[in-house]
Write a sequence for this structure.
């Protein structure tokens, strides 16, 4: 059973304090930027003292991740050309992921709502007051586009 996702902007002033007590992870995504397409090639995670890195590819909707040593991931970021970086802290529970972006994207806060096919988005009647615009289908808020802004 596949999960469904909806992405939203967040009104930071309405975000409750308990959000900051959720488990958080630091993510760094590296995108290879060229003239015709942006391609995510690297994911780095720091969570609860653990550090991980993956080479990442998506071809024809097939995703492949290969775990690599964390230090190798950092080396790729530091030495590669045409790599755009997205850095974010993600606070998560079983329904919401709230992402606080860093660097050139500082101040951008988004949330991802995870739904099951049993309870689709259209059946939701009340969203939290901190949820703003639905950006799921807005290409401007896709990470490859945001990554270009980090250059």
């Amino acid at each position: 059973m596949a999960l469904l996702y909806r992405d939203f902007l967040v009104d930071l002033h309405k975000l409750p304090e308990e959000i900051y007590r959720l488990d958080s992870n630091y993510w760094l995504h590296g995108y290879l930027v060229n003239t015709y397409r942006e391609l995510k090639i690297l994911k780095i995670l720091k969570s609860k003292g653990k550090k991980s890195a993956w080479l990442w590819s998506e071809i024809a909707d097939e995703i492949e991740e290969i775990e690599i040593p964390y230090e190798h991931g950092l080396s790729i970021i530091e030495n590669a050309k045409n790599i755009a970086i997205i850095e974010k802290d993600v606070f998560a529970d079983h329904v919401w992921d709230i992402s606080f972006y860093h660097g050139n994207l500082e101040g951008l806060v988004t949330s991802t709502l995870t739904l099951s096919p049993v309870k689709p988005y259209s059946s939701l009647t009340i969203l939290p007051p901190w949820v703003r615009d639905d950006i799921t289908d807005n290409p401007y808020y896709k990470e490859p586009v945001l990554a270009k802004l980090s250059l």
Summary: Residues 9 and 110 are 5 Å apart (CA to CA).
